[in-house]
Write a structure and sequence with these properties.
27% helix, Peptidoglycan-binding protein, metallopeptidase activity, binds zinc ion
């Protein structure tokens, strides 16, 4: 199913099913780079699809001069399927330690990030302490980065999942439609995140919240992206 019969994109063969497959994978990876947006899955090679391929090559494959083309055995296609990007040579730092005014809701091996990302999380947690609540940190990245299922992103130590804040202070999941969800506390969290100079974006689906972008599936966590 995930095999291309021919190339897709600029100068490609652009067979319908191949184009469709590339569009679907681009959409699965849209989470990684805001430049892609959501593509209509038509199987027809068009301007929007070409732009998305170029954005993906620039932002994720890190091609100096993207060619806008996905070849069946090429690097762009492998990475669209979720292969690891080039090993990063930046050492990641693990988020750990008690009394940080946060708790982890995934395992310890999944909370490695760049030094600035980890520092920002600590800053935000500290800023919120006087307000009387802690924050819940989920997946960041593995120690060596790379693919972290089920996410498309979380490869570079700059993505952090955070639970919306509960009104009752329990260490438990919560969604925006749950009576225990605190919009007011989560708003303080969002504001504290925006005070970090390296914040890039927040994906979260509380439509009454300023400073966040809607993204499917983000009703039970904030996906926070920091600069590299
Ligand atoms: Zn996430």
């Amino acid at each position: 199913m995930y095999r291309l019969t021919g190339s897709v994109g600029q100068g490609g063969r652009n067979a319908h099913d191949d184009v469709l497959l590339v569009q679907k994978q681009l959409n699965k990876n849209a989470h990684i780079t805001s430049a892609i947006g959501t593509l209509p899955e038509t199987g027809i090679m068009d301007e929007a699809t070409l732009r998305a391929i170029l954005s993906f090559q620039r932002a994720v494959v890190r091609l100096g001069s993207p060619d806008g083309r996905v070849d069946p055995h090429g690097r762009t296609w492998r990475m669209l399927l979720g292969d690891q990007p080039q090993a990063t040579n930046v050492a990641f730092v693990q988020l750990s330690g008690e009394n940080g005014n946060f708790y982890l809701y995934e395992s310890q091996d999944r909370v490695w990030g760049t030094a600035s990302t980890i520092q920002s999380i600590r800053n935000v947690a500290a800023v919120l302490k006087p307000h009387g609540f802690e924050i819940a940190i989920g997946d960041i990245s593995f120690q060596q980065g790379g693919r972290m299922a089920p996410h498309g992103s979380h490869r570079r130590g700059t993505d952090v999942d955070i639970r919306p804040v509960r009104a009752d202070g329990r260490r438990a999941p919560v969604t925006i439609s749950d009576p225990n969800y605190s919009h007011a506390r989560t708003k303080l969290l969002v504001e504290a995140l925006h005070a970090e100079p390296n914040l890039k974006l927040i994906l979260f689906n509380d439509s009454k919240m300023a400073g966040v972008r809607f993204w499917e599936g983000h009703h039970n966590h904030l996906h926070v992206r920091f600069e590299e």
